[in-house]
Hints:
Elements: H1 2-31, H2 39-58, H3 67-89, H4 95-127, H5 134-153, H6 163-186, H7 189-195
Helix pairs in contact: 1-2, 1-3, 1-4, 2-3, 3-4, 4-5, 4-6, 5-6
Amino acid sequence: xxxxxxxxxxxxxxxxxxxxxxxxxxxxxxxxxxxxxxxxxxxxxxxxxxxxxxxxxxxxxxxxxxxxxxxxxxxxxxxxxxxxxxxxxxxxxxxxxxxxxxxxxxxxxxxxxxxxxxxxxxxxxxxxxxxxxxxxxxxxxxxxxxxxxxxxxxxxxxxxxxxxxxxxxxxxxxxxxxxxxxxxxxxxxxxxxxxx
Length: 196
């Protein structure tokens, strides 16, 4: 029975995390004003539309941001955590605490999306500079808002762009100082390792 629970948790976390990533990407793509005619954006839209359509009737946009996709990401994270706890410990725990953990988890994933997009962008700038591949264009559209403030502050280095280094540092500092401290204050370490 324990083996079945472990397998169920593995499948649940894998598929749930993948869908959570797609839902949060929908929010990020709108946040960075990505080109929604991109085939990858079209996939994200089609994958999230069935659950977002009813939420949009209830949750309005705020400051031009699609708040329904953000709320859906938090709800998916909450359901994922509750089911993981139920399968592992036989209880879902406190709903308010689960909500707080879900917000922290979604925020951490939000930062990871930018972190890994920056890594992909740096690698692409070495192996395929100026590529017009839909994936490369999408990665560049995601990275540009994170890099723009650093590009304005840094002097021109003659074609060498150091802004990704500072963006990596900023993202890692936010993760270390904010996300990790919030997570440590709100949950036990063994549950943190299980859910993050």
